[in-house]
Inverse folding.
């Protein structure tokens, strides 16, 4: 099945517009020039042949006025200019200066005009090409004089002129298309600059601005775009600072609560059973609250930094093994592949991202099934497989959003605040990489973090 062609781009439309306009103007000029030149040349040719026919008719009349002159002999002695032929109607008979022409070559309407005493010209066609027939009445000699002159040479001239004009129109169209290419680049260049700046801003580089311009048509666009980015950067910075300030302010009362609960925990044995249950619940919620505050502080730091700070290369395989050991997990879960797995990313942020992937597998995926560190071309991939039911295809894009904890039906029963995977995605983005989730090779879900080998 043939696919319908897609819409043409702006640059292609500009080039086609210039080419079409140039072709139209060239066609009008070529047609007008050709018609004017053709009319002028035909008119000049007709005037010249008419004067020649009158002169030849006068010469023939003079010769026939001589006593004893015969029309056949007079025609043989008549030498019309060029390659013209003469046909004469005299005394009810037709005479010709050439065997190739005769009465049949004289149009009937021209005969009628000449017979009425009116000189006239007619353009006709023949096997050898177009010709001009001039009819001249000779009253004193009872003679109708017709001179037939071929227009082949003039036709070749007009063909050559048409070919030259057509070639000129084609060359002008190509020049117009070339000018359209140049103009389209000048027109599309500001749009490409805006698109490039928007792409860098979307990638997190909020310091990107459009360069100043002296073009009066672009000053407002450049100023409005830069003002929008300034407002966006200020808003993001304000929100990040607000989250950071709130998190810092909450740490003090949280620390006090944790200390008080620790004191109560030390005297757990003296409390009645219902109080111990309440204490255990408070300890669980305080631990969850503390993790949420830590995640909010980390997100605030990530939002305030457009890029990852300069850091020494970190071996991802070794770091993954260290994280497994520090979190009391089996280091044999790690399956590294041979190759260079060093990446220039801040070790603390990368370690937190790995911890969040492991914690996510424990909380939502039934535990960690395996960890892989694989070097691929210009990136290093870290994959964590879990033993859970997997992530539905419709939720795979939003699980990395902030405060996302699965579908609405299970959100209330899931532990955590939904910030762990958001930190993983932000860490990858700041390093120039990405994070995604797919089906695991042995069931469950596979969460993958890609980190480039070179600094962004």
């Amino acid at each position: 099945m043939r696919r319908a062609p897609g819409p043409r781009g702006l640059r292609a439309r500009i080039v086609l517009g210039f080419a079409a306009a140039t072709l139209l103007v060239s066609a009008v000029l070529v047609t007008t020039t050709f018609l004017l030149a053709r009319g002028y040349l035909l008119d000049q040719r007709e005037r010249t042949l008419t004067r020649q026919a009158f002169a030849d008719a006068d010469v023939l009349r003079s010769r026939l006025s001589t006593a004893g002159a015969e029309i056949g002999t007079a025609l043989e002695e008549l030498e019309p200019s060029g390659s013209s032929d003469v046909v004469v109607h005299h005394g009810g008979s037709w005479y010709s200066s050439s065997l190739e022409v005769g009465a049949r070559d004289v149009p009937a309407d021209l005969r009628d005009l000449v017979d009425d005493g009116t000189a006239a010209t007619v353009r006709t066609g023949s096997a050898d090409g177009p010709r001009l027939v001039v009819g001249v009445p000779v009253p004193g000699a009872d003679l109708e004089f017709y001179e037939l002159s071929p227009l082949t040479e003039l036709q070749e001239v007009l063909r050559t002129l048409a070919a030259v004009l057509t070639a000129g129109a084609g060359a002008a169209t190509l020049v117009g298309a070339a000018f359209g290419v140049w103009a389209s680049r000048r027109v599309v260049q500001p749009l490409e600059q805006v698109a490039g700046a928007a792409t860098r801003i979307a990638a997190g580089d909020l310091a990107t601005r459009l360069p100043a311009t002296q073009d009066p048509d672009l000053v407002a666009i450049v100023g409005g775009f830069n003002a929008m980015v300034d407002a966006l950067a200020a808003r993001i910075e304000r929100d990040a600072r607000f989250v950071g300030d709130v998190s810092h302010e909450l740490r003090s009362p949280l620390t006090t609560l944790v200390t008080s609960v620790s004191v109560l925990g030390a005297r757990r044995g003296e409390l009645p059973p219902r109080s111990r249950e309440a204490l255990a619940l408070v300890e669980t919620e305080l631990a969850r609250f503390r993790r949420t505050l830590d995640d909010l502080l980390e997100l605030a730091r990530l939002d305030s930094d457009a890029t990852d700070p300069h850091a020494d290369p970190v071996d991802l395989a070794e770091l993954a093994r260290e994280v497994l050991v520090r979190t009391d997990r089996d280091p044999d879960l790690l399956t590294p592949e041979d190759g260079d797995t060093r990446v220039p990313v801040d070790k603390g942020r990368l370690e937190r991202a790995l911890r969040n992937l492991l914690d996510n597998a424990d909380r939502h995926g039934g535990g960690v099934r395996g960890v892989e560190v694989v070097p691929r071309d210009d990136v290093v991939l870290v994959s964590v497989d879990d033993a859970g039911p997997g992530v539905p295809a419709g939720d795979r894009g939003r699980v990395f959003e902030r405060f996302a904890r699965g579908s609405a039906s299970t959100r209330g029963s899931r532990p955590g605040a939904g910030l762990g995977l958001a930190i993983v995605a932000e860490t990858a983005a700041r390093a120039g990489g990405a994070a995604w989730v797919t089906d695991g090779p042995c069931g469950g879900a596979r969460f993958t973090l890609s980190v480039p080998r070179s600094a962004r």
